[in-house]
Amino acid sequence: MRSTSNPAFRNLPQGNAAAHGQYGPNLGFNQPQGGVPGHGAPQAPAASGDRPMTVDDVVMKTGMSLGVALITGIAAAIWAQGQAAANAMGPIIGVMIAGMLVGLGLSLFIIFKQKASGPLTLAYSAAEGVFLGAITGLFEMLYPGIALQAILGTGAVFGVMLVVYKTGAVKVTPKLRKWVMGALGGVVVLMLLNLVLGLFGVNMGLRDGGALAILFSVVVIGVAAFCLLMDFDMADQMIRDGMPSKFAWFAAFGLMTTLVWLYLEILRLLSYLQSD
Positions of the region Disordered (predicted)? Predict the structure, then answer.
């Protein structure tokens, strides 16, 4: 597999294209000739008993994961607003921490065990939905309308990057992958450094809502957007490699991890802008 900024896509088993006949379709690009339009070239039955994954598999599994996250997120946000109105911050913080820890634990298990599992991916999406929903409920109390803005902003970035990838406006080359991974590493280091120094009362200005914090959030959103571009390319590569259809859940999980990060950063940026 290609190198990627998303740990969910690293060290995946190689698809056995030869066992499946022709490669499956990619994300609508470079369609092989002679196949059914929109569905790639004819495919022989998979030797493993599982057909090769298709773009429809990725779209459906990702849509299901987003749907679960949205449902649990809305429920958690409504509940959090009710608790906040009653000045009951303890339960909100407890639910946020629980959702974060459950999501983190499931993500680590999926990544390190390479589990392409629908139940695990949907459980991860539900946990992240609870986590994001609780946070969003609090932000919505402080900045009415910010939740819808963050959702629309995340959807807009996702849509733009998908169009950029589909049209080939930005090619995912080895050079671009190295640049994105380097930028991601730099962002993570700065976040960790800011966290550690903050414990000792040192303010780097990266998360205080000032001009530097706004600039940093814009940079992080840009890096997350390019990570989405690499996620699209990795899912495309999985399809071209003829990996079993169950790995569409892995592609959906990888996209969800990036979207969760992107949503949080957009929510943070919007709060900075509305507090000025």
Answer: 22-52
